[in-house]
Amino acid sequence: PDGFHTLMTVYQTLALHDLVTVEVRDARATSISLASSDSRVPRDASNTVWRMVEAVLAEVGRTVEVHIHIEKRLPVRGGLGAGSANAAAALLALEQELGVNLTEPRRLRLAVEIGSDVPLFLVGGTVLGSGRGEEVRPLPDTSSMPCVLALPEIGVSTALAFRDWDALHSLSSLTPLSSSTTIEKLSRSIA
Q: How far apart are CA 52 and CA 119, in angstroms?
C-alpha cells in the first residue's frame, strides 16, 4: 500500500487561518525564499507552500523570484490543515501577483498534486471529501456555531497517524466487513 486511505468525510473550514504573503519580482532564474514567524515551519521544498509555488510557476511557465512569509496563527501539526490551507492561499496569491487566472480545474489539479486536502481549501465551507480526500463537493453550509479546540503540546504528522493506524489495524481481528457491522451496531446504540 501507498499509505493513503480511501475515505468519505465531511470537512468544515473555520474562520481561523495563518497569514500568507507572496511577493514576486522578475528574475533571470527562478528562486524561492520562505520565512515564517514560527521556527518549526520548514523553509525548503518540504513545505507545501514552497511546492505549490514551484508547481504554479511550472504550470504558467514563468521565471521569477518569489518571497513567501507565513505568519503562524494556527498550530504546527495541529490537525487543522494549516499547511494545506497555506498552499491554497499561496496558489491564489501567486496568481494575483503574476497577473494570471487559472481555471478552476487547473487549480484543483495543482492542489491535488500538492496534498490530498489542499482542494478543500479552494472550495471552503462545508465540503464532502472522498477518495483520499481530494475529491471535493460543496455541501450546504452548516449554521454558525461555537467551537472549542483543544490542542495538546505535541504535534502529530497525519502520515504518521495513518501509519500507526495501519499497524494497529493489522494486529486486530477487524476486517472491512466486521468493521462495517461494528459501526452499524454502534450507530444503532447511540441513536
A: 12
How far, in Å, CA of 153 to CA of 15, rounded? 22
Contact 50, 88 (CB under 8 A): no
pLDDT tens sequence across 36-91: 999 999 999 999 999 999 999 999 999 999 999 999 999 888 788 999 999 999 99
Going by C-beta distance under 8 Å and a sequence separation of 6 or more, which residues neighbour residue 24?
Answer: 64, 65, 66, 67, 94, 97, 98
CA 74 → CA 28, 135, 166, distances in Å?
A: 35, 25, 28
Q: At what angle do helices 48-60 and 82-98 cross, to 10 degrees?
A: 30
Query: With a threshold of 0.85, does the pTM exceed it?
Result: no
DSSP-derived pairing of the beta strands 19-26 and 31-36:
unpaired
Longest dimension (CA), the chain: 65
